[in-house]
């Protein structure tokens, strides 16, 4: 059975903090763009862009997580 030492826990913490930070920055960015473009482009277009943004973020989240598992 593999043991997780102190360095591994530290790397997991750094990874989780970076992942969380990226999620927050992405969310604020999408909210800012949505607020600025809502009246200009129309609600239907903005909703479509928001859904596309969610799918892209989900894809990259899964990719980063799976790549991290392969390294371990």
In short:
The chain is an all-alpha fold. It has helices at about 5-40, 45-70. It has a domain at about 40-70.
Overall body shape:
elongated
How many DSSP H or I helices?
2
Extract low-pLDDT stretches: none
- The SS-based structural class is mainly alpha
For the termini, the CA-CA separation is 14 Å
Helical content, roughly? over 70%
Number of strands: 0
Work out the radius of gyration. 17 Å
Structure, described:
By secondary structure, the protein is mainly α. The chain has a domain of 31 residues. The protein is 90% helix and 0% strand. It has two helices and no strands. α1 packs antiparallel against α2. It is elongated, with a radius of gyration of 17 Å. The model has no long low-confidence stretch (mean pLDDT 78).
Write the layout of secondary structure elements.
Layout: H1 6-41, H2 43-71
Helix pairs in contact: 1-2
List keywords for this structure.
single chain; 2 helices; 72 residues; elongated; 0% strand; mainly alpha
């Amino acid at each position: 059975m593999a043991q997780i030492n102190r360095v591994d826990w530290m790397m997991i913490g750094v990874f989780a903090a970076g992942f969380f930070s990226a999620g927050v920055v992405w969310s604020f960015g999408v909210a800012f763009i949505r607020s600025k473009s809502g009246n200009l482009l129309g609600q239907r277009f903005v909703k479509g862009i928001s859904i596309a943004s969610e799918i892209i973020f989900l894809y990259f989240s899964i990719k980063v997580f799976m790549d991290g598992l392969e390294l371990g």
